Automatic annotation (TrEMBL):
A GO molecular-function descriptor: hydrolase activity
Residue span of region Disordered: 328-348
Keyword Hydrolase: yes
CDD domains: TTHA1429-like_MBL-fold
Domain of life: Bacteria
Residue ranges of every copy of the Metallo-beta-lactamase domain listed in the record: 28-240
Pfam families recorded: Lactamase_B (PF00753)
The entry's keywords: Hydrolase
Polar residues biased stretches: 331-341
Name used for this protein in its record: Glyoxylase-like metal-dependent hydrolase (Beta-lactamase superfamily II)
Protein's organism: Nocardiopsis mwathae
Amino acid sequence: MRETPPVEDLGSGIWSIPVPIPDNPLGYTLIYALESPSGPVLVDAGWEHEESWRALCSGLEHMGSSIADVRGVVITHFHPDHSGLAGRVRAASGAWIAMHQADIDLLGRIDDLRGGGQRELEVSQLRLAGASAEEVDLWAQLDPRMEPPQPPDRPLADGELVDLPGRRLRVVWTPGHSPGHICLYLEDDGRLFTGDHLLPGITPHIGLFPFDDEHDPLSTFLESLGGLSDIGATQALPAHEHRFTAIGPRAAEIIAHHEEKLDLLAEALGSTPSTLWELAAALPWRRPWSDMHALARRMAASETAAHLRTLERRRRAIRTTGSEGVLHWTAPSTAPRSTAEATPAANR
């Protein structure tokens, strides 16, 4: 568990408020409060938990404000450690909640699956991925997922300025970790709030789910990473770990990490069809595949699927459908030998 840092005044009317994520190895989410004449605007809101709520309220009081003064909450993406408290902030202050339209649309689809539909989708997808009957049964017995966050009332689009009086906080659409993930560039200060898109020491989960969906999240992630250097920001303020300045080099490092993983996965493909489950099990992970919990295996399979989709787009993998609809992949007979020969990433 990471040690929670203190509330910090970062200058130029920006405050860092660490909000705990109880029982999670990430430890905390860094919430940023930006001062304005009409009250602070928050970048993210933190996990829905009493301990998290107390930390957020205390942090605002430390900067001389209160939860009732909050003008708005900009959510970098819909995940619960970023959006969980947004509804509670709105109830306490009347604040607006803003999120990119693509994540708002995704929340609508999640809401449509409530009442058992989500679990049915998970089970059907595991069967398509080639998971064993025992694995599918284990997943079917898991508790339902957390409730989705409160719906935002302000959709955001790429390039739009956030409602922050006296400042220029611009939306930079950076899909990949979620379809509507955004970074936020404070143009009058030169700092970039990167959410989970760009972190100094870890990489965000890039998954494809459902496994038979046709979008390409990894390619859009790599493309949006590559464009961060062009913004000209002087410092990155991420949602986890710590602030850093080497934005371009760190983005290049993460791109190289995924290119290496793509090459490793391409080498695992052969002329004999392999299921997603078999390919995910063959890759190296922080924990051995046999020791992974059911949720960790599903996330690993989702990440493997995202890399397979990019390999398909680059003509380095071929997908087929076997018996009972199970998906398989093989290596093409004339696959490009390097990423330089691959087709360009799909436009976002």
